[in-house]
Amino acid sequence: MKYYYLILLILPFLCPQQSSAQKRRGFSGDIGLYGNKDEVGFHYAVNYNWMLNKYIGTSVGAMIYHYKVDGIGWQASNQNIYYSLDDENYKHINITSSLFFLLPLSKTIGLYNHNSFFFEPVPLESVSLDKTTYGAEGEQTKTVSKLQYSRFSPGVFSEIGLYCNLNKKENRLKLFLGFGCGWYDVYSAFRHCTIDKQRLEEYVTRNKAYYRISLKLIDL
Fold first, then answer.
1. pTM of the predicted model, to two decimals?
2. Cβ proximity of 29 and 46 under 8 Å
């Protein structure tokens, strides 16, 4: 996997370059839906793109990924204490870098391949756990939190799909629809976190493989 990251970083410098006058640059926005057998999530992103030549482009930008942790619960060794993962929405703020390839089929439509790598620039995540104690005074619940090092929660994806030119005169505004798969360490902070002597690694998914459907609009 680490070699894939390296290829994404150096490949743009190996591609033939256009002259400054010919280069096309522009912003883009996209949304994506992620899923596997354990969970679903979604992202929205903004990127700055530029073409290295007629068929190859690259981009950098920011992406926010949203996901929800189900309220999984378990009994502690002390039978009067019950723990559960705080049932709330979490998000990762990522820096993303991409390399994409365009293959025109006509003046209006074409095929594309998009490869991206992303990570959290601030590798810290607040992880919460609900602790419920049953005693003579009844049921008492409090939330225990910890700021956990997330190891940057990296991800890498590759997708293929179709694009169409919405502006037929200049062919700048393009709409992309793609499907892909990849690897994303969403629960890195949870898997390395211990709160109140509870190892959360035992209660979150270890599945890092995801499918993704994305929709992009690029002015390029």
1. 0.85
2. yes
Residue count of the chain: 220
CATH 2.40.160.20 assigned to 26-219: yes
Q: Which of 103, 120, 96, 110 is nearest to 48 (CA)?
A: 96
Using CA of residue 45, residue 180, residue 40, residue 97, what is the dihedral sign? negative
Helix (H, G, I), strand (E, B) or coil at 37: coil
Q: Indicate the DSSP class of residue 6.
A: H
Please tell me what DSSP assigns to residue 38: S
Per domain, the residue ranges of the chain are 26-219
Q: Of 146, 144, 116, which Cα lies nearest the Cα of 130?
A: 144
Give the pLDDT confidence score for residue 1 in this predicted structure.
Answer: 52
56's tokens: 């190859």
pLDDT in tens, 100-146: 999 999 989 999 999 999 999 999 999 988 999 988 778 899 999 99
How far apart are alpha carbons 115 and 103 in whole angstroms?
15
